[in-house]
Specification:
The complex is a heterodimer of chains A (about 160) and B (about 290). Chain A has about 160 residues and is an alpha+beta fold. Chain A is about 30% helix and about 15% strand. Chain A has a five-stranded mixed beta sheet with strand order 2-1-5-3-4, sandwiched between helices. The termini of chain A are far apart. The mean pLDDT of chain A is about 95. Chain B is α+β, with helices and mostly antiparallel strands and about 290 residues long. Classes of the chains: A alpha+beta (about 160), B alpha+beta (about 290). At the A-B interface, strand 4 of A face helix 2 and helix 6 of B.
Chain lengths: ~160, ~290
Amino acid sequence: MTQSFPVTITVNEKEYKREVEPRLLLSDFLRHELGLTGTHVGCEHGVCGACTILFDGESMRSCLIFAVQADGHVITTVEGLAKDKDDLHPIQQAFWEAHGLQCGFCTPGILMTLVPFLKQNPNPTEDEIRHALSGNLCRCTGYQHIVDAVKLAAEKMR
Amino acid sequence: MKPSPFEYHAPDSLEQALDLMSQHAGEGKILAGGQSLVPAMNFRVAQPGALIDLNRVGELSYIREAGDVMHVGAMTRERHLEFDPSIAKRIPLLTEATPFIAHPQIRNRGTIGGSIVNADPAAELPVLMLALNARLKAKNVSGERWIDAQDFFAGMFTTALEPDEILVEIELPFMPPRTGWSFMEVAPRAGDYALMGVAVLVTLDDAGKCGRARLVYLNAGDGPVDAKEAAKMLQGEKLNDTLIVSAAAVASEQEITPFGNMHASPEFQRHLANVLTTKALKQAMQRAEENLQ
C-alpha cells in the first residue's frame, strides 16, 4: 500500500497543504502539484542545475529533495522573484538587458543560484562569478553573456 | 526517471532513528543530504525498501572544539564545514578541500557523514578523513564504538558499519604545529568528479626536516589510497626537488591503482597523480616552512 504524508510547504510566500507520496521529488511537486513550471527539470541527478530553488533561503537542487522533506520549510522558485512582468527582479532585468539567455531553459536555475550568491558577495570578480555558475549548465550562450549579466546585476543591486 | 516506492520515516531524535535502524536492519537506508543517494534512486540503481531521514535530527549537526580535536556532527552540511572559522584555523586542509566537493547547491544540502558513509572512491571527504586521521563514531541501539578512518573504508561504496549502525560523529585532530598542507585535483569541469586528486600533509621537525608526511589519493583505487611508501621516503629527510620527484614517481607508479574511465586512461590518471603530487608536496612544504616562523 502506498504511504502518503500531509505536508505544509510555503512556496513564494504562499502556504500550500497537500498529501504527498514519499517518492515525489520536490521538483515534480512544484511543477505538477502547484503548477509552478518555472522550475525546470533537466538531468534529475544534480548535475545540470536547471531545478535549483531556494530552500530556507539557500540554493539547492529540487530534484534531489523529496517533497515530504520540505514539510514546514520555506521554498522560493523563480516565480517568486518578480512581482509582475513590469517589475522584474534586478537579476532578471540584467539578464534581459545583457542578453543573458537564449532558449531560457537553464535560466530559472541560474537566477536562483545567483540570488543568494549576490547577497553574500555583492561585488564579485569574474572568477567568482564563473565559479558560482559552475553548477549550472547552459547549452546555448557559451556563458559570456551570462557572466556579463551577472556583472550588470551586481551593479544594479549595489 | 523517478524513484521506486519506499517506506519513509522522519524521526526527530537520534534515539528514534536508532530504533528504526534496528527494526529495518538490512533494508533500511539512512537519508542524509541525499546528494548521492537520491540520484541513485532516480536512476533506480538504488531501490531501498525504507528510508530513515535524519534531516529532522537537529542534534547531529554541530562543529565543536574539544581540547585538541574537533567534533563534527554527521549531519553537518558541507557548506558549514567550508565556512567554519575554527575549522579554517585548526584544520585548514579541510577548508581548502571542501570547495572541490561538487557545487555550492550540492554542498548546501550534502553532509559530511553522508559523503563518508557513501564511500565513493572519487569523493573528497573519505580521502580527507584518512589524511587527517579522523575517528568515526558509530551507534546502534545497544551502544557505540569508535572506528579509525583507516579501518572504516572497506572498498568501493563499502564501509565497516554494521547494517543497524549510524555514523553520528566525526572526530578530527587539529593539524599539528609546523604542518603544511595541500589539496589538489583535476576535473573535466569545476565541480565534476575529479579524474585524480591528492591531499598532502607535511610536518617538519625542529631541524626543519620532514618529520611526518601523508599523501592520500582519490579516484586512485577502490577507496581512498594512502601512499605509505612515498611518505616513508620523505620522512627524516630535508625535502628537496629531487626527493619530491622520486616520491611522486613511487606514489603514482607503484602505490595507486586507478581504473580509468571514459575521460582518462589509467596511464593518464597516473600522470596526473605524478604532477599533482609534485605540486602539492612543494606547496605543503612551503606552507610548513612559513608555519615555522
